[in-house]
Amino acid sequence: MATGRTHRPATRSRGIPEATVARLPLYLRALTALSERSVPTVSSEELAAAAGVNSAKLRKDFSYLGSYGTRGVGYDVEYLVYQISRELGLTQDWPVVIVGIGNLGAALANYGGFASRGFRVAALIDADPAMAGKPVAGIPVQHTDELEKIIDDNGVSIGVIATPAGAAQQVCDRLVAAGVTSILNFAPTVLSVPDGVDVRKVDLSIELQILAFHEQRKAGEEAAGEPGAVPLAPKESGKGPDGDVPAVMPA
Amino acid sequence: MATGRTHRPATRSRGIPEATVARLPLYLRALTALSERSVPTVSSEELAAAAGVNSAKLRKDFSYLGSYGTRGVGYDVEYLVYQISRELGLTQDWPVVIVGIGNLGAALANYGGFASRGFRVAALIDADPAMAGKPVAGIPVQHTDELEKIIDDNGVSIGVIATPAGAAQQVCDRLVAAGVTSILNFAPTVLSVPDGVDVRKVDLSIELQILAFHEQRKAGEEAAGEPGAVPLAPKESGKGPDGDVPAVMPA
DNA sequence: CACTGTGAAACCGTTCACAGCG
DNA sequence: CGCTGTGAACGGTTTCACAGTG
């Protein structure tokens, strides 16, 4: 994802597969809902349905954590909530800083899901001096100058970047230099980070583009081989790399 | 992801692998940047670095699109931009509706990346009557009552859900009933949709939880087998599913 | 000669199917 | 008997290494 190594080789001896890790939060959410309704146990089938996966996958996933179920019965909801929380490291509180308090940064600061489980917004940081001191989601925005001090004082190891693309790498470098080792990047840029720093990327326009691809597929399919509509241009025909480049390019 | 089938089996005869599709937007962005700097050609090595992947993967990816490179030289930037745009369906304009104009919805409406490449925000929809008529990002918010009419009038096939979790499934059902076949879901819920509808999910708290997992790993590792600090609870010891359930559970 | 395009190998993730256990 | 836990089969993805070509 980033140029430097992004997440370690995933081949730690006792490692849980990445794909499984990515689903644990899903299970945890479903379990928490059950817990709130005081449901004592679930079968893999029921829980899988609630989490939107199939039961075989869920059982395999849980098998990496240990044998936490009871054959013939299912899983103890409370117990699993605890085990998964612990595995994810949510039994401790992670202080998080958000850098870039524009529309998105403000939305993130206000997002309830942050504060609720294991995360605490330790500070909001923005480069605009006019923002400094203004409270967003009840937290006063601080100026970028303070970044290193904030990271250090609060022992922050997770940073969220919600700046414009142009500023992202620079902010990233400062976060990393100050000791942050996990970054959630909302800016549409590839970040490069040193070994040992994890970057996850959330990119709205990429998600839309993937949807558009499938959408186009559907359209092309339902009227397969029809003239008009989506011009499913020659796939194998024009191989010559230049000469007849259509003058498209939106801008 | 969702309960109903989410994306088709990916085994369309001439299909481009999902993993490749997910990277095309990345390549496109890197290429667009090169194009703006009037760079005429790139090697797979250079482009791969810019996109944050390795060159073998990039070449394999491009090989699914056809033979668009020149051996000994590289790829023609303009030509590739066009080919990838076409493959992703971005040579047409996709009208998109955003439902739920809270902090996040507003951020999305203002997000430049939406409008810039192939997407147009056709309407903003919110359930709060007080919002109706108020412009956000220059577009007046419309009431949920109008949803079906808006979808229909604008020929919208892509919807973005930025409502609270509780409203998401209901909004989703209405979008689908009105003809939307691709959904980008920001609400922290599993959506169930009928066959043929694609759902992609963006979940902030899940991303953070995945980072927390790796973060905890790092902490446990650098002081392996030390007392104090992160209590790396017994991994293989307590197997008995109940009896000694720690009374944790944050709420 | 440098770089693409691609078979083949290695790897990872998912699904199947059933043995094993409460 | 019902449901978990898991080895084995499968399919997709990444990486390797090099033949092929402008």
From TrEMBL, chains A, B:
Residues 220-251 are annotated as: Disordered. Coiled coil: none annotated. It is found in: Cytoplasm. Gene3D superfamilies: NAD(P)-binding Rossmann-like Domain, Winged helix-like DNA-binding domain superfamily/Winged helix DNA-binding domain. Its main location: cytoplasm. Residues 26-65 bind DNA. NAD(+) binds at G100, I101, G102, N103, L104, G105. InterPro entries: CoA-bd (IPR003781), NAD(P)-bd_dom_sf (IPR036291), Rex_actinobacterial-type (IPR058236), Rex_DNA-bd_C_dom (IPR009718), Tscrpt_rep_Rex (IPR022876), WH-like_DNA-bd_sf (IPR036388), WH_DNA-bd_sf (IPR036390). SUPFAM superfamilies: NAD(P)-binding Rossmann-fold domains, Winged helix' DNA-binding domain. Residues 89-190 form the CoA-binding domain. Pfam families: CoA_binding (PF02629), Put_DNA-bind_N (PF06971). Keywords: Cytoplasm, DNA-binding, NAD, Repressor, Transcription, Transcription regulation. Residues 225-234 have a biased composition (Low complexity). Homodimer. Modulates transcription in response to changes in cellular NADH/NAD(+) redox state. Belongs to the transcriptional regulatory Rex family. This is Redox-sensing transcriptional repressor Rex. The lineage of its organism: Bacteria, Bacillati, Actinomycetota, Actinomycetes, Kitasatosporales.
